[in-house]
Amino acid sequence: MKLSLLLLSPINLLTQEEPVISARLLSIFLLFSPLMYAANKAMVSVEVIPLAQGVSPGESFEVAVIFSMERDWHTYWQNPGEAGMPTSFQWKLPENFQITNQREPTPVRHVDQGITTFIHEDEAIYLFNIQAPDEVADSNRFTVDINWLECKDLCQPGSSTHHFVLAGGEFRGSKNVEWTSLVQRAELNFPGTFSGVMGQAIFRGEHIELSLKRYPWSNKLLSADFFPFDEMIYHSGKSVQIKRGLFRDRILIPLQIDLNITPEVLHGVLVRNSTSPGGTIITNSIIHQQLP
What is the pLDDT of residue 18? Predict the structure, then answer.
């Protein structure tokens, strides 16, 4: 990824070219240096929408955070891969409110000049579940500070702060049609729960082998990919391989063998592309498989 380097100051902006920078160096520059990578204007917009009319005591509600990217621009998944920075959310909640779940879309693999990253393109909808306490105030103010890195041929940090206020009380009204549609759109890109493992995932030195039970009438597995939640364990730059068998398919997930790290759990998002009578089926699943 080629990055244009800008020196930001209250008076002027100075531009110069810099070579490709590794993931960790990029993070260090952005966090600890006055030097930042920037374009001329923001290429990502963010909208925060509470999906509730108000806050009922002891109940939970969802908040959607929608990232809209300009064409060919992207942000990064929670594990960005070999470069980039994950998007962060800092919530300020009313007393005794809690974030109980955060859902993020499945990323896509992006390779540019030999650097592999895990990104979000076009649109990324996050859903946050917020649990209310048994007693709520008449008025409840919520704030979220969001920071991200947006990239194309160059990169720049982005940030925004959002506020919303919800009244407290008993709310049992019908669901908003637009909210329902928004959640359904988000659900299309969320990974589900993994099923179908026969036996255990096995550590094989240079890779982890995951066996999937295969029936003669089942859909044919065409390809697979794996997006690990843990950084610096799996080899992001190497492709996931599949070996088909009569009764099972094996997915080979490459490891960073030079680091001498042996993972104890296979934890990440598994993406499978399979054939079906109606065309290709893409299945995104969160897997958390203990290794023997």
Answer: 38
